[in-house]
Write a structure and sequence with these properties.
By secondary structure, the protein is an alpha+beta fold. Helix content is 36%, strand content 21%.
Length: 580
Amino acid sequence: MAFDGITTAHIVRELNDKLTGGIISRIIQPEKDELYLTVKNGKETYQLYMSASASLPLLYLSDRKPAAPMTAPNFCMLLRKHIQGGHLISVSQPSLERAVTFTVSHRSELGDPCTRKLIIEIMGKHSNIILTDDNAVILDSIKRVPASMSSVREVLPGRPYFLPETRHKADPLTVSRETLTTAILRKPCRTAEALFSSLTGLSPLMAEEFCYEAGLDGGLSTQSLTDEDRERLADVVLRAAEAVRESRFRAFLVYEEGRAAEYASLPLRMYDGSQKEAFDSPSAMLQTYYGRKNKETRMREKSAGLRRQATTALERVIKKADIQSRQLADAGKKDTFRLYGELLNVYGYQIPEGSRSAVLNNYYTNEDITVPLDPTLSAAANAQHFFERYNKLKRTEIQTTEQLSAALHDRECLESILEALDKAENDADLEAIREELVSKGWAKKRSSRDKGFRREKSKPMLFRSTDGFQIAVGKNNIQNDELTFRFANGGDWWFHAKGQPGSHVILRTEGREVPDRAFEEAASLAAYYSKGRKAPKVEIDYTLRKNVKKTPAGDPGFVIYHTNYSMMAVPNNDHIPREQ
C-alpha cells in the first residue's frame, strides 16, 4: 500500500485537530532524512514523526521518543533557529497532493514576528522536507537537489519553492462527472490504471477498490466498458471524493495470513472476507503498519556497509578454502611418490640406464605397477627425486590442513556474522558486530572522530515463557558469548540450532523445575533465530549450561559440548511475549 493522497488528507485532519495552536518545543534529527518534532498543545504533548526516506517516506504522530544524536545535523540546527519555540498556525494539503505544509509563527533574531513553512513531500525517491520563509523562498532542505540531479526543480537555499506538476492529473476533489466519463475512463489502458494515472494522489489500491465497488474488473481495458459501467464507476469516485471533503475517514488494517497486508482511510470492500483491525487515528494505523517495517528498513540501510564487508570477506574465504581443498587433494598423491622411491631403491639395479619407465612389483599388494622415470637420471637419483616430492607434499599437507581448518572456521564466523546482521535491532547491535569484524581484520576500525556516534551496549532479547521462565536470546557472537558465560548459571539450560549459525538461547531456571512447554518454547526461539528459520522444523541441541565450554580458539560465540539432548522445533517467536 502506498502512502497516497487520501491517507495524507486523513493525517492532515488529525494533525490540525491535535497540533494547531501548539508550540514546537523540541526538534531532533536522529537520521539523515528523519525528523521528530515535539509539539505541546495545552496539557498534551505529541511527537510528530517525519521521514523523507526514499524507500519509506512517512508522516504521523508517534509514541516513540528517540534519543538525540550527540551532534545535531545542520538542517536540524536551522529548524531550531527558525521554528523551535514557534506556534503551529495550521497544517494544510494542496488538493490531494502527497505534500503537507506546516505554517509556524515565530520571531526573528530582532524580535519581529515572522512566518515559516515546513513542507514535507511524500513522493517516493523524490521525498523531501523543506523549510521556506513567508515569501516561499527556500531556506534549506533535508535533501538538497541541484540542477544536475533534477531538471524540473532545484531545491536549494535561495530558490523559490513550488510544488512540481503532477503530470497534468485532475484533482479528485473537484473533478466533474463529465471529465470522468468522457476523458479519464476512455484512456486506452486498464480501467484501474486510467484512474490512478489521471487523478492526483490516488493509489493503485484505491483505484482497484473503486472498480470493485462498481462491479468491474480493474484489469480490463476501458474500451470494454459500457456507458453504464462508466457512469457507475464515476458515481463511486465522486462519492469517495465527497467522503474526503467531509473528512469521513475510517482507519483500518487488513490482515492476510496473520500479517498486515494493506491499510486505508476509506473502506476496502474487496477485502470484506479478510480480518480487519480498526483504529481511532491514522497515526496509530500507520505506526502499527510501518513501525516494524521502518525499523527493519533503517537497519538494512545502516548494516549495508557491514554486510558488504562481511560478504566480501566470506567470498574470499570460500575461494581460499576451495584452493586449499584442491591442494590437499593433490597432496594425497604423496604416498604414491614414496612407494615409487622405495621400489626404485629395491629394484633399481635391474633397470637399464636411459629408461623412461619401469614395471616393478609392488611387494605390498604383489601387483605390478609402472613407475615413470627421468631418463637423464639414474635409478637412485630418480628414487631420491620421488622422496623429495613425497616430503614436500607431506609438509604441504600439514600446512594446508591447518590453513583449511582456519578458513572453514572463518567461514563459520562470517556466516554467523551475516546471520547476526539479520537480527540487529539498533546501533549498539551493529557496533558489536563491527567490533568482531575489526578484531578479525575484516573491517576497518571506526574513527573516534565520527560525528554523532554514541557507544552503547548491545542488549539481548528477553522473552517470558508461558510458565513464567525468562528466556534470553543473543543477537550476535559477542552477545552469545556474554549470555552463555556471564549471564547464565550452570543450572540454566542452553539451546542452539544444530550445525548452523544461530543465537545462543538461555532458559533461566532460578532453581525451579522446568516443564516441557518451557523447553519447547525456548527451542522454537532457538530455531527462529537461526539460519534455518524458514525451514518447517529445525533440530535443536540443548544441555545444561555447565556442559558448554569455549573452543580452544576462544572466538566469541563458538563453543563445544559433549553431553546434550536434541529435539525438533518449529521456528516461531510470535507466541512468546517479549519483555523488551
